[in-house]
Every structure is written in C-alpha cells, then in structure tokens.
Amino acid sequence: MQTFTPATEADAADIIRLATAPLQIEGAGTKSALGRPCVGDVLRSTGLSGITLYEPSEMVISARAGTPLADITDTIAAKGQMLPFEPMDFSQLLGTVDQIEGRRATVGGMAACNLSGPRRIQSGAARDSILGLRFINGAGEIVKTGGRVMKNVTGLDLVKINCGAFGTLGFLSEVTIKLLPIPQKAVTFVIKGLEDAEAVGVLATALGSPFEISGAAHLPFGLGRNISRTLMRLENFEASITYRIDQLRKLFGAHKDINVLEGEDSVRLWRGIRDVEFIAKPQANIIWKISCAPSNGPKIMAELRALGGTHYYDWGGGLVWLSLEAPHAEVVRAAAARFGGYATLIRAPETVRAQIPVFPPESVPLTALTRSVKASFDPRGILNFGRMVEGI
Amino acid sequence: MNAILFPIPDANILDKRDQIIAGLAQIVPFENLITTLDERRAFETDALTAYRRMPLAVVLPRNTQEVSDILTFCHAHGVKVVARGAGTSLAGGAIPLEDSVVVGVAKMNGVLDVNFADRTMKVQAGITNLAISGHIADNGFFYAPDPSSQLACTIGGNIAMNSGGAHCLKYGVTVNNIFGVKMVLMDGTIVDIGGDTMDAGGLDFLGLVVGSEGQLGIVTEATVRILRSAEGARPVLFGFEGVEAAAACVAAIIGEGIIPVAMEFMDKIAIEICEAFAHAGYPMDCDALLIIEVEGSEIEMDAQLARIVAIAKQHGVKVVRASQSAMEAAAIWKGRKSAFGATGRVADYICMDGTVPTSQLSYVLKRTHEIVRGYGLRVANVFHAGDGNMHPLIMYNVNDSAEQAKAESAGNDILKLCVDVGGCLTGEHGVGIEKRDLMRHQFSNIDLAQQRRVVGAFDPLGLLNPGKVFPLDM
Ligand SMILES: Cc1cc2nc3c(=O)[nH]c(=O)nc-3n(C[C@H](O)[C@H](O)[C@H](O)COP(=O)(O)OP(=O)(O)OC[C@H]3O[C@@H](n4cnc5c(N)ncnc54)[C@H](O)[C@@H]3O)c2cc1C
Description:
By secondary structure, chain A is of the alpha+beta class. In chain A, 30% of the residues lie in helices and 24% in strands.
C-alpha cells in the first residue's frame, strides 16, 4: 500500500486520473475508522493546505481541503466568528488520537463527513453552511460547485451530496464555508432528575418556544452524575440571555431542580455532548448513532432497553448516541425503523464494519440511485470504493 | 436578437398527440385532463411571459399513484414531461415544450400531518407556501422561507427552485427547511427521500433534489420544518440620501456580526412604485430605503435596533422610522412583497436575480444603473440586501422586440458582472430557460457536464423538463 500526498490540486487530479485501482481518500485519517473498510493506495489531502480567502465582513472563509480544522477555527475566532454547525472531534471516540499523534482533523474530512454537532437544531448541518466546493471526480476532472455567497441556485447543487458522501463521489480539494458571529454569551439551563420521555417532552416545549434554544440534550442517570440532566443552551447577547432564562424559569417552574451553568462549565458540557465523550469508554464498545424524530428517541430506546448499554440524547431527542457491548444490528435497526429512524454504526472493529452495513440500508429505488449517482461521479469506482455501501 | 431558443419539437410525438391523450385519459378522470386550446393557454407560460409554448396536454393528478402512472406512461412512449406548480417561475422554469405533457400538482394541496412536538409538517406538493404558514399560524408557528409570491407559489415549485424570501437571512432558504420528500422518478418509480429526521444516513439526495428545477422527479409530498414565531417583530425603515450609503450600511451591519431577520433594499424608483401601490409610508425624499426587521421580545428588539441605528447613523441615515402598530408593519411588508406586481402595473419588466458578496453591493448597484442606462432603459432595484441577492427590474415594452432584446442584453451584462465580482447568476429564482445560456460564464464545461450526468442518473432519457438549466448543445 502506497500513500500519495500531492502538493497541488492538479497533482491530485493526475493521481486519480491515472489510477487503475481504487484509492482510499483521507485527510489526516482521524476518521479512517468511520464507514466500511475499503482497500487501495491512500490519497491524502494534507498536502493541500492553507486558507485561500477570508472575508470577515462577509462571514465567509475558503480553505484547501487539507487545512487543519483547528487552524480555521482559530483564525475565525480571532475575528469573533465561528462555524455555525459545531463540528465534532471524533478522535477520542474513535481512538485515533494516539495512533496519529500530531495529525489534526482537516476541513475536507469535516465536509466529507458532514460533521454537525449540537447546534444542528438551530443552525443546520455542515451541508447547510458549506457554500462551495472544489473536488476531483473519479475521472480526475476538477469540478467546482456552489460558490461563496449564501444565496445561490445556479445549476444543480453538488455541494450537499458531496457533504456526507465520505469521499465516495469526489476528492475534495477546497471548501468554502459561511460563518456566524460568536454570541456574546452562552449559558445552559439545566433541569435535573427527569426520565427520558419526560426530558424529551421538556426539550420539545423549549424548542417550540420563541427562545431560540441552540442546544437541547438529555444525559440520563449515570452519565457524569448520579442524576439525569436535561440541558438547554441559550446563546445571545447579555440582555437577551437574562430575559430568556427568566422565561424558561416561568415555563418550567414546576420542576424543582433547576440551575444555570455559565462560562467554561457550560462550554465543557457541550463539547462533551458534541464529541460523544460521556459514552466513549469503554473503548471496546460499539457506538450507534440513531437519527429520528425527537419525540421518537425515547420510544426507540424503550424498545432497546433489554440490550443494556448506555445512551444519551442530543438534538432535542432526534439524535441518540448508544453504546453497546455487541452490535445487535438487527434489533437496533428494526427499532429505529419502526419509528421512521435511521441507525448508523459509528464505532466498531473493522471486522464488524465489514459484515454489517455501517449506513442504514436503503430502499431498493434509493440503492439504485446511489449506484447511478456514484457512477455519474466515479464510473470506474476509484474513490473510496465500498466505503458507504458494499460494491458501490 | 437574444431570443432564447427552445429545443426543436419531436414531430413523431406531435403526430401521436391523440394517442397520448387517450392514454392519459385512462389514468385520470376527464375533468383532470386539459386538452382544448383555450384551456391549455393558461399553461403555455409562467411569470417569464415573454416566452410561451403550447403543450400537448395538461394533466392534473390527484395523488402520488396517478403521478406515477402518468410518468410510467410518458416514459414508455418517450413523451417529455414538465412539472408545474403555480407557474410563478420568473426564469421560465415551468414553460412547456410543444412536444411535452404538463403535469400540474395544484390539485394535490392538502395538509397530511402537523407535529408540533417535533416541529414538522407534512404537506402535498401543490399546497401554496402561504397556506402552510396559515395552517399553523394560530398555534404560533410558521414555515420560514417566504417568497414574495407566497400567496400563489407551491411548495413543489419552492423545492424545485430552492426558493428564498425576505426572511431567509436568518432562517435559511428552502433547502435548509425541508426534511423529506416523496418523489416520482421519470420511469414512474416512487421514492421516499429523507423523512422527519434531521439526518438520514446515506447520500444526501434531498440536497440534490431541492433546487433541481423539476429535472430529477416530480415531488408529490414534502415534510417541512416549522418554527415557533418570535414574540414580536418590528420592521424599521431607514432612508438614505445616496444609494451607496445604504449599500455600505448593509455591508457594515453584516460585518458587525448582526443578523437581522430581514434586510431589504429599495432604490428611488422602487420606493415610488411601491408607495403608490401600498401606501406604506415609505419616505419619498430618499434615494434608497432599507427595511430592516428585528424580532424577539421588546428588550431584545430594542437592543438589536440600538446597534443597527448606531451603524446607520455612521452611514448618514436621513430617516429612521419604526412601525408603530401591527397594521403599519403589515403595510411596510405589503409594499415590499408587492414590488414586482406594482412594477408590472407601471411597465413590462424582466427581473434579474444575481447574488453578489455584500461588500460589492455598492459597486454593483452603480454599475447596474450605468449598464441599463447604456441601453436607454430604466431599472428599479428592490431586493434582499442582507444576503447580497439583487433584483434589478429592467423595464421595457414587451411589444417592442428591439427593446426586449436590449432589456435581455442589459440583464445578461448585469448577471455576468455578478459572477465576475464573486457572486452567481441566480440567488433564488433558478436558471430555467432565462439564464441557461449564461451558465458557461459561471461554470466550466466540466462542471456542467458533471451536473448533467447527475441529472442523467435520475432520468437517463432526459425526458423531465428538458431544454432548461443547461445550454442546449449539452
Ligand atoms: C411576483 C413574484 C414574486 C416572486 N418572489 C420570489 C421571491 O421572493 N423569492 C423566490 O425565491 N422566488 C420568487 N418568485 C419566483 C417563484 O415564485 C418561485 O420560483 C416559486 O418557487 C415557483 O413556484 P411555482 O409553484 O409557481 O412553480 P412553477 O413556476 O410552476 O414551477 C417552477 C419550477 O418548478 C418545477 N416544479 C413545480 N412543481 C414541481 C413538483 N411538484 N415537482 C418537481 N418540480 C416541480 C417546474 O417544472 C419548474 O421548473 C417570485 C415570482 C413572482 C411572479
């Protein structure tokens, strides 16, 4: 197995064009354990690095795909800006921290995996803020799609389909992202002692209020504390936060155990929720991510109670993180599907990921579309062949 | 002449018209099949009225299965299909071809489910944009994207065009507010894409379908995100002496990290036209007007407005006038939202839709005036300034073909300018036929060919809404 680290987009295009067998596409490799295992020489984006455009007054940044994400977040933070979608750092969860010390997650990998954290419920997923991409398709052609302005419906949008395609449709070479100002203040309103269903009900009330909750999670009993915590984040200017905390107190006055976290206490909590820290250990456990309508989260978990394990909810209940000793794929998927949800295998040994579909199996017509869309980008099956679906 | 060309109709299909109609008559009841010349005329164009083509027939299916049966039939007979919502496309996206069947979704306009706990709503594709919000308004909820045409346009059309509106600055455009669709592929296959979840796993087909201009399939149902309305909203008028000052103020507000719900721009001609129509109390002695809306509780609105007013003062704002009542607020928005209609009463116009980086607004506005004046025509500007989405309305006489050609040339020059300063050809109206031939100014042949191949992955025979979006020689 060979590793290519081209220094220019044109070199990367040549490598793909001349390839006669599948290539594995990587950034820094912090998420190489996500998805189905695939084979082939490795094509890395880390040689394509650097911010190519940053206009703070337009809240937009472009960077080559191999640029460390941290470089971007540092650069924009210095101007009081942030990534709207709060991408997670998976290196702890996937245990890739030690293996690849010194290597840092790239912006290309972030886009390819559509990484979206707690603020998803308010500001959308990565795909909603990524305005433009440059990528190399499986024929080795350099393609651009989207642009640098927020409103753009010119032609078929290939940005979103490439976000979350895990490098199966294109080798991303440049990413343009819309930013948001960092709010003056962030606090977390906490209610303790609620059961899952009750907690998700509370979160639904909060999210259905006019108070612009930017994070809505529930940590059941045993996750960090010996009491459950239902969390609602407010991010805004000072006067608004003061007002909204008052309003939430009125809304949830019937609950006794309420407190408000500020500063680093609040920040650390959401970082933990974002990065799945609370259930990351034991490292040998399987991690599932279940997406569902928020009110169905506790219903799905009720069906899965017999499996044991630990879990918590983000996105108001619409995202369940579940840690189990064994995959129990059929049981987990059936429970999710019964409520219109989808279960994705986020962490599992390679042998398991080779046997069990990592992504939720799709209907026959959608599988056919996955195949034909893949062929339209990568007719020879060069790019991350089989990473998402076996044989595609 | 710049007249936009249409593909040459297939004579074989034209000859088989009776047979095709007979086939369709097997699928839908008599009253849902429109065949007479007079009745078809209502469908021969959309809001790009300078162009029109008479379709073979118009079918108005009542459910997804009928749509599937129609497409299966058309696919088997190689008949082209143009989906249609309300026909308000400004880009000619819904203009038929002479050898096509129009499939209108207007009869499918019901609400299927409302789920306040999960903040989603499931509707049929033919429901109007406004009816979605109207259905949940009493519960304090709304559907965010609000095109000015919202009284008429359908969610199916909004999805096809990825439509925007004044309040998209804060809440995003259609694609950011859709969770799932039911769609029929050209071969009749019914697919469910996404659902009621925030993330589905697998390829993001939803992100591909929204904005695909009716070329991937016919959407029959959609699950949309609904939001709780803010406690209050206050549109405020900011009048400026110079157009440049107003544009610079917009850029400065965004640059300060303030994102109001809406930030709309009108120049002098637009102010005059809209005021005459809506009597909204727009200041008449200004060259440019910004309508900036803030929302939230009184304290929050006051705080945000204070910052905005301070910035506006730095840019020499002449008049600041907050709406004093719900009625005044409604009048302010009525004036803005009827801008196109009001302009239409004064003159024929074509509406451009380029987007530019907000820092370029001032320059592009100046050049727009120069360009249009250079063709001896007049232009009104009324647009979504906060996201740089410009709408120059170039006025001309539709019965004067030389003037029409000039107007189209001026429009093309403006759109190329938008691309050249880092923007794009269309921010929310779509490409349709109108901007089709300019696509090579923004995209390379490789870019376009990749897009085209993806369309082909859904519709290999190219029967769905052909002749749109991509240059005809592709
Ligand atoms: C006065 C006026 C103001 C406007 N203001 C705005 C604005 O503020 N913002 C904005 O974004 N747009 C605006 N528009 C443009 C227009 O209203 C939008 O593009 C709208 O979404 C079109 O919806 P429709 O139902 O009329 O679709 P149509 O015009 O019927 O069709 C538009 C396109 O969608 C396709 N289509 C329609 N239904 C379906 C379906 N069910 N499945 C698949 N494809 C389908 C058609 O084939 C066509 O390509 C305005 C138009 C007018 C006339």
